[in-house]
Design goal:
Distance between the termini: 71 Å
CATH topology of the largest domain: Rossmann fold
CATH class of the largest domain: Alpha Beta
Number of domains: 4
Largest sheet: 5 strands, mixed
CATH superfamily of the largest domain: NADH-ubiquinone oxidoreductase 51kDa subunit
Radius of gyration: 23 Å
Structural class: alpha/beta
Amino acid sequence: MRTTIFVPGDAAALALGADAVAAAIAIEAAQRGVAIRLVRNGSRGMVWLEPLVEVATSRGRIAYGPVAAADVPGLFAADFTTGGAHALCLGPTEEISWLARQQRLACRRIGVVDPRSLSDYIARGGGAGLRRARAMAPGEIVRAVTDSGLRGRGGAAFPAGINWQTVLATPAAQKYIVCNADEGDSGTFSDRMLMEGDPFCLLEGMAIAGLAVGATQGFIYVRSEYPHAVAVLDAALEEAGDFLGDFKVEVRKGAGSYVCGEETALLESLEGKRGIVRAKPPLPAISGLFGQPTVINNVITLASVPDILAQGAAAYRELGIGRSRGTLPFQLAGNIKYGGLVEVPFGLTLRELLYDFGGGSRSGRALRAVQVGGPLGAYLPESQFDTVLDYEAFAAIGAGLGHGGIVAFDDSVDLAKQARYAMKFCAIESCGKCTPCRIGSTRGVEVIDRIRAGQHEQIELLQELCETMTQGSLCAMGSMTPIPVMSALRHFAEDFGGKCE
């Protein structure tokens, strides 16, 4: 009888030596005459424990980590293939406190299934949502998504059901489902983890969306920096067979532009053009890819759909708080002790996420600031750490949850330098179509440099420049760049040598 051993093939685990560990396990097992089945699963999201090796036993899966290739002979000597005691043994994986305290829905199978096996996906509950959707009318599917309260997980948090209803109601011979997997925000990796660890969930969500609006063609636009995700998606599509029915999916690599995360720039890129934003209206739901009605959702949005259809809209809506329903996979990064993926219902506070899950700073110093929502998100001071993780609560303090990425900084951070980074990032990544973004960001870097050199009277000019960019930019690239700048000025004025009124 073969023992199943899981070694993550996730990009983060690979960066920490997972391939060497897998190779060492295969060699050691062969030398000892131990029959094993080696599965390259996704990461569970506990990055500080990677590579995390799991062994299937009669007591469930037993975890060991972090494992180096040099540890493998000792693990075999300790009979780890039956869950034997070892210094690296963490016990049953599902009982690890960091995992047990989460409530995973979209990410429930990440790290659990073999990402290249459709049969494993089905055995773990996959496909139930698609089967139910096939027995429903398109309008009923859209109503279920609407009633669930699901909002887009890509940043804007627009109700997904309204978007789908618009596409459904717009007559056209051809409609499209586009998955925005151009996950380019700093501190974000949930899309990558899902594509690498549970690709069939994404494909199922896209197929359900196709049934809902009458689309037969889907595209997954993956950033070029995610080669492992592309490889797993290609393998899953090869394996899918008739699982998706008449719905066809193509994987397209992005062109390396941050602004292609904006939906209309993404559409331009998909059409083979330069990735620059389109003026709206018309909305993509009415005239999107190749001028046809198009649903554009990000990975986690679409991956949330199968569970909504399988369990019912009411079950999903019961989770969360206010208008923020369901769960969101938060990503802890930066100067944080326990970085990784935490999926919980809306309603926790930022402080609970940072300390109960994150364990505080990795450096051991006090956390001074966190940036939530990517490089264009607000810098929040410790006095706002008790803000509830809720779209409206964050909007009330001039911030946003975005894609759920959280980057932590200890008390050694210079927020004026971080504000300069935001302007410089915009100057580099701007598509150049509108003047406030293209020129404003360049002038912003210059103004902040003068402020940091002691010309504190320039703070007022910086504020006026930010207002111009906010009001005049064509898309979120330029209009949101002032958010980190102004939040740094507001909450950390001492780093600029002046005060923000």
